[in-house]
Amino acid sequence: MTLSVAVSGASGYAGGEILRLLASHPDVQIRTVTAHSSAGQPLVAHQPHLRSLAHLVLQPTTPEVLAGHDVVFLALPHGQSAQYTDALGSTPLVIDAGADHRLTSAEDWAAFYGGPHPDPWAYGVPELPVAGGKQRENLRGATRIAAPGCNASTVALSLAPGVAAGVIVASDIVSVLAVGPSGAGKSAKTNLLASEILGSANPYAVGGTHRHIPEIRQALIAAGAPSDGIRLSFTPVLVPMSRGILATSSAPIREGATDAEIRSAWETAYADEPFVELLPEGVFPRTADVLGANVASMGIAIDRAANRVTIVAAVDNLVKGTAGAAVQSMNLASGLVETTALPLNGVAP
Ligand SMILES: NC(=O)c1ccc[n+]([C@@H]2O[C@H](COP(=O)([O-])OP(=O)(O)OC[C@H]3O[C@@H](n4cnc5c(N)ncnc54)[C@H](OP(=O)(O)O)[C@@H]3O)[C@@H](O)[C@H]2O)c1
């Protein structure tokens, strides 16, 4: 079976990374790539690293151009997806890299995004512990999938095992993330200029305003946290690395939980997961070790003096944080081998 695929937003960072992964997928034919202001230009004018796709020309992003494929990836700015998803009713599988279809709560949508609340779709993080198993089961055979927010999935994967096993308390979570500017996309913004970023660490969306907060809460509720019992302090800090997220999250230890029970919560959750790496005790990940890889790498520390568990997780925002999650979800939804075309190894240095 060969799936014919269209990728919109193909001139951007997320679209480019989806194409890089799909280019080596044996069950996929990339038939159509679309963009907005760059329509009409060769794909390689915007993605010169995608040499094997040099024959493709960017087409305008319209429902007509996107129709007629087995799979459509939407990698568009926030708010742009819903207009196409309605028109793609007969497309067997649509995967949105944007936030439009991630939130189930209309209240959260109104508070953090505003405007009409699009339908929630299956959340594209297969490894997440959810009631009765893993999110993977909700992706098998799915026809509409919302790929995750990169920061949100990194923090959710960090904390969900402890929540699901009941060894941490969700009412006092603190997450601080070092993030690279590629997470904000390719379009020019003054705060993302090299002169603003190099040699500096710049916090943003401080104090509970970041749009990934409700997405993390939603994932932790799915893992078993009480819906009114989650308090999350979330602070991203822009740092001078192109790709990567290093998320340090901590939460209080549930009274009575032993060190063995705490460690076992994460070991059990991720023992059979090829793309979530739990490092040995005392070892913590670096972003450099996951660049280009579809891997969330994490280390946990049990800090009895602070009575908290601290989880440090490293993810490439463009791979495991977006494109890798999207392709992994496509594989599951299409009945393909889940790991197909997803790199375990990164690039170094
Ligand atoms: N970057 C990440 O690490 C990351 C992680 C998780 C999720 N995401 C999500 O992925 C989506 C794309 O992000 P990105 O980082 O790839 O952004 P980006 O680099 O700015 O790319 C945006 C793409 O959308 C196209 N576009 C712009 N305005 C459009 C419009 N009105 N209609 C149709 N297409 C339009 C652009 O085409 P032209 O260049 O031709 O104008 C470009 O191809 C966003 O929803 C983002 O939240 C990104």
From TrEMBL:
Keyword Amino-acid biosynthesis found: yes
Keywords, alphabetical: Amino-acid biosynthesis, Arginine biosynthesis, Cytoplasm, NADP, Oxidoreductase
Biological processes, Gene Ontology terms: L-arginine biosynthetic process
Coiled-coil regions, chain positions: none
Top-level taxon in the UniProt lineage: Bacteria
SMART domains with a match to the protein in the record: Semialdhyde_dh (SM00859)
Pathway entry: Amino-acid biosynthesis; L-arginine biosynthesis; N(2)-acetyl-L-ornithine from L-glutamate: step 3/4
UniProt-listed Pfam families: Semialdhyde_dh, Semialdhyde_dhC_1
Active site positions, chain numbering: C150
CDD domains in alphabetical order: AGPR_1_actinobacAGPR_like, AGPR_1_C
Family, similarity comment: Belongs to the NAGSA dehydrogenase family. Type 1 subfamily.
Main function: Catalyzes the NADPH-dependent reduction of N-acetyl-5-glutamyl phosphate to yield N-acetyl-L-glutamate 5-semialdehyde.
Protein name: N-acetyl-gamma-glutamyl-phosphate reductase
Originating gene: argC
